[in-house]
Write a structure and sequence with these properties.
The protein is mainly alpha-helical. It is built from 13 helices and 3 strands, in the order H-H-H-H-E-E-E-H-H-H-H-H-H-H-H-H.
Length: 379
C-alpha cells in the first residue's frame, strides 16, 4: 500500500501528459494488488508437496522457458528491449515468471538429487546428477533473458541460484562448484556488460563517477545518474514532502514510478524515509532466513532461501543503482514499483514463504502435543 501511494505521487505528471487521469497508474496498480493478494493467498494455501515433485517442477520450468522463447518471437519492443508479451488488457513479462519457476525447479532438483548433510559424496554422481543440470538450466534461462536483452534480471537469477546451490550441501564439492560457477558467471557477466555498446557506455559513465566524482555527458549517458543524485540530495533529512518531488518532472524520465521510485521516496521523504525502506528489506531478509532455517523439509528450506534471496537481491540492486553504488539498471523495487508481472510474482513468492512458515509452526505444535502426551503417560 505504501508502494501504491508512492506510485500515485510519482506518476501524476506523466499520466496527465499522456492525456489520462492523474489516478490512472494508481488504479492500475490497485487492480494488480487485488489480484496479487488473491494469488498470494492461493500460494499460501497450496500443497507444497506437489511442487516438490521433480515432474511438476520440471513442467513449471519448461513453461517458463517456452514463454522466454515466445517473447523473443512475438514480444513487444520497448526502447530496444523485447521483454513483454502483449495480451491486450495487460503486458506479460516472462522473465518475472522465470525467476520463481527456476527457484521451484532448483529447490526440487537439489532436494531430490542433492546429498544429505554429512553423507559421502561421489564426484562423478554429483556432477552428472546435480552440478550439470544446475549449470545447464541456469545457462539456458539466463541466456534467453540476455537475448531480450536484460542483464540485470540474469544477475538476480544467477545470484539466487548460486545461494540455493551453496546452502544445499555442506560437502567440499558444493563449495568448489559454487566458486567455479561464480567465477565463470562473473566472467560471462563482465563480457555481457562490455560487449553491448549501450551497456559499456553505462558502465563507463558509472566508473568515471566512482573514480573521479564527475559525471560526463550529463545530457546523454549520464542523464539518469546526474538527475538521480540531484533528487536524492535535495531530499535532505526529512524530504520535501509527499507529492513535492521535482525529479518526477521527467528528470527521471518515465522511470519515476518504476525503476527510479526509490529516488522519489528519497526526495519526498528524505533520509528518514529511505532508511525505513532499507531496514524493512533487511528485516524481510532476516525473516526469510529464519523461515528457511525452521522449514520442515529440505525442499521448503531451499525454496525459502531462493525466494528470500531473489527479493532481497533485487531490492538492494535497485536501491544500489539509485544511489549509484552499482551501474544503473532497469529492475523494479519489490513491493513498491509499478508493474503487474513483478507485483504478481512477488505476491506468489511471499505466499509460498508464509506457507512454509505455517507448515513449520504446525509441525512444532504437533511435536509439542506429542511430547506433552508422552509426559502425561509417564506421570
Amino acid at each position: 500500500m505504501f508502494g501504491a501511494l508512492m506510485i500515485y505521487s510519482a506518476s501524476t505528471v506523466i499520466a496527465k501528459d499522456q492525456g489520462v487521469s492523474s489516478f490512472h497508474y494508481l488504479i492500475l496498480q490497485m487492480i494488480w494488488l487485488a489480484a496479487a493478494f488473491m494469488l498470494g493467498y492461493l500460494a499460501y494455501r497450496f500443497n507444497l508437496s506437489v511442487l516438490a515433485k521433480s515432474e511438476v517442477a520440471t513442467v513449471i520450468l519448461v513453461g517458463a522457458i517456452v514463454s522466454l522463447i515466445l517473447v523473443l518471437i512475438v514480444g513487444k519492443n520497448v526502447a530496444g528491449a523485447t521483454r513483454w508479451i502483449d495480451l491486450g488488457p495487460f503486458d506479460l513479462q516472462p522473465s518475472e515468471i522465470a525467476k520463481l519457476a527456476f527457484i521451484i525447479y532448483l529447490a526440487s532438483l537439489l532436494a531430490n538429487r542433492g546429498n544429505k548433510s554429512g553423507a559421502k559424496v561421489d564426484l562423478k554422481v554429483h556432477i552428472y546428477e546435480v552440478l550439470a543440470p544446475f549449470v545447464i538450466t541456469l545457462g539456458m534461462v539466463c541466456g534467453l533473458i540476455l537475448l531480450q536483452p536484460d542483464l540485470d534480471t540474469s544477475v538476480i537469477i544467477a545470484i539466487t541460484a548460486l545461494a540455493m546451490y551453496y546452502v544445499s550441501g555442506t560437502d567440499f564439492f558444493h563449495t568448489v562448484g559454487t566458486i567455479a560457477v561464480l567465477v565463470l558467471g562473473g566472467i560471462l557477466g563482465v563480457a555481457a556488460a562490455v560487449l553491448a555498446p549501450y551497456r559499456l557506455q553505462r558502465v563507463t559513465t558509472w566508473l568515471n563517477f566512482i573514480t573521479t566524482g564527475d559525471i560526463a555527458e550529463k545530457a546523454t549517458s549520464g542523464f539518469q545518474i546526474w538527475n538521480t543524485l540531484i533528487a536524492i540530495s535535495s531530499g535532505g533529512l526529512l524530504g520535501l514532502g509527499y507529492g513535492e518531488s521535482r525529479g518526477k518532472l521527467y528528470y527521471l524520465s518515465i522511470a519515476a514510478f518504476t525503476d527510479s521510485i526509490f529516488t522519489v521516496i528519497a526526495e519526498e521523504l528524505g533520509l528518514v524515509g529511505t532508511c525505513v525502506v532499507i531496514f524493512s528489506f533487511i528485516y524481510f531478509l532476516y525473516l526469510g532466513i529464519g523461515i528457511a532455517q525452521r522449514a520442515p523439509d529440505k525442499f521448503s528450506s531451499l525454496m525459502a532461501i531462493g525466494i528470500t534471496t531473489w527479493i532481497a537481491v533485487q531490492a538492494f540492486l535497485n536501491i544500489g543503482a539509485n544511489l549509484t553504488v552499482v551501474p544503473f539498471g532497469g529492475i523494479p523495487l519489490p513491493f513498491i514499483s509499478y508493474g503487474g508481472s513483478n507485483t504478481l510474482m512477488i505476491a506468489i513468492g511471499v505466499g509460498l514463504l508464509l506457507n512454509i512458515h505455517a507448515r513449520s509452526v504446525r509441525g512444532n505444535e504437533r511435536e509439542t502435543s506429542v511430547s506433552k502426551i508422552g509426559l502425561r503417560s509417564k506421570i
